[in-house]
Amino acid sequence: MKLTQLRYLVAVAENDLNITQAARVLHAAQPGVSKQLKQLEDELGFQIFERKGRALLRPTDAGTQVIDRATQIVRQARNIKMLAADLRKDDAGDFSIATTHTQARYVLPQVLRKFRDRYPKVRLHLHQGNSEQIAELAATDRIDVAIATGSSPIFADLVRLPCYRWHRCIVVPHGHPLGETPQPSLADLAKHPLVTYSFSFSGPSSLLDLFAREGLIPNVALTAWDSDVIKKYVRDGLGVGILANIAIDGEEDADLKVRDGSHLFPVHTTWAGFRRRALLRGFMYEFLEILAPHLTRRQVQTAENSDSQEDVDREFAGVRIPFLR
């Protein structure tokens, strides 16, 4: 049994059993990947996948167990390579981050600029997506760090470190009646079509729930993942925007009227997370501290050694988490 065979197996599993796509990711020839999988099955003495012709349909019950173990082995092999690089004091390598559009567009540019100044040899890979896409990238070990918001169960396997807090704001074009209301109420908002984030409608403190508690039904005209898309449609008159205050740029958004929504909407905490028992390179600790200065290497390593997210949360209970304005 070879490590290469296990790497190929894990890549096929992570690419929806598409050998062609897995070969592309591995920079290998498709016949070579198929051959290695067949040799692995011959050695094990059973099929890892159910097949229809040349197509892989699904893992067998035994195959599912093999894939799970292979994933752990490939992950540990990667950790050994990362450990060796750190022990050599190597300041080069790859660093993959997954986050939402809002964080990538409005928070990370200055963080990554400072990081690049310190580590010019590190190759950065930035992936943008919604919560489900970020969780999938983390679960399949395709990223080193996830940056997201919320406590969805889909992130249960990650060590999540609180970085900063933010709240929603209300955005309208100049001349809109809500622009003259210092603190609009939910009843005021319910009188107008709304444009907001798609993810605002899931979770225990969803936007719909907030209106429902007041006996109101919001008129949602449009939802989107992208803050810039929301602002575009506000400018085009489709409705009143409800979005993260960190997505407001004073100069670029001077044509919009912004009203604070902290009196209406709950505070959100953005966190940085990584898989439990993952090995972080030295430059990854540095990145976390640039992103959130209270995430010192010592603080992060303490969280790494925690047995559960509850322990991590207790560790940060006395730490002041800043608000981004």
What does this structure look like?
This protein is α/β, with parallel strands linked by helices and 325 residues long. It is 41% helix and 22% strand. The chain is built from 13 helices and 12 strands. It has helices at residues 3-14, 19-26, 30-44, 61-87, 101-106, 108-118, 131-139, 186-190, 207-213, 227-235, 282-291, 297-304, 309-315, and strands at 49-52, 55-59, 93-99, 122-128, 145-149, 158-166, 168-173, 193-197, 219-224, 240-244, 256-260, 268-275. The strands form 3 sheets. Strands 4-3-5-12-6 form a 5-stranded mixed beta sheet, with helices on both faces. A 5-stranded mixed beta sheet has the order 9-8-10-7-11, with helices on one face. A two-stranded antiparallel ribbon has the order 1-2. α6 (108-118) packs antiparallel against α11 (282-291). 29% of the residues are buried. Mean pLDDT is 89; it is low at 200-205.
